[in-house]
Fold:
Amino acid sequence: MMYLDNPPRVIQSRVYTSMPEEFRRRGTSPAWAKANKGGHPVDCFIEGPSFDKDGNLYIVDIPYGRIFRISPDLKWTQIAEYDGQPNGLKFHPDGRILIADYARGLLELNPETGDVSTILSGRNGESFKGINDLNIASNGDIYFTDQGQTGLQDQTGRVYLLKANGDLQCLLNTGISPNGLTLDRTESVLFVAMTRDNAVWRMPLTTQGGTAKVGRFCSMFGTSGPDGVALDNDGNIAVAHASLGHVFLFAPNGELIARVRSAAGPTCTNVAYGGPERKQLFITESSTGTVLVADMDVPGFPQPRA
Structure:
């Protein structure tokens, strides 16, 4: 399909729900805020949207180590609070809920008890820099990013593959703030948002293992950069931008075909498809603690849901 004759269209989002006042930590400045927000008070910073099979939306609250479940009737329930900084959250094909936690590594959540347990905290005796997000293949392989404080000044961010048999492979160690990631429909290419490079990198996966001919799939601009990503059934990639107040939709050839405008603040951090026939795009706007939703023409590519 060719898109070159069509200018990018603008899609309006709307507010789906916002964090209730009872859960906001007003006037507090946790350690995460000191490192990431100049020490300014932060009442919440939501991320990691993911749907279960019953249509409940799970999100994380990074600075306060909290996990929330939002029911289809928009009731918020806190299901966990622990000593950590959860960022990405995904459902494994075997039903587990996995969390990419910046402070503690790759975790598993028990939604009934709220307990978290560690799957991985590092590699070869070395702690992770600070993992950010994850994507799970159909066979149970887990891809995740180890971002830390990397950027153009320190181009050592990593992308890992934890195979279903337990083997851990470092696919890339020259990342410029690796963040959200998704496999393509054939699971032969991995797309990784490199936040401080303001770009999405394309990582072909070789049949012998590893990756080759990594390149920039698309480039953006702004004071922050691309964050969470999601794939649709046509292979288009929705990219949340953490400073431009938009989610950008790129065609498989890298062309920008649409942009979803935030109905709240500028900090669009992550995305997930859900709703009827997966034709709604849900967006975490973290500066206001709001979940946005936009109606899309193409359904999201199916993801595991417990």
Notes: The chain has one helix and 27 strands. The radius of gyration is 18 Å. The longest strand covers residues 168-175. The first helix runs from residue 31 to 36.
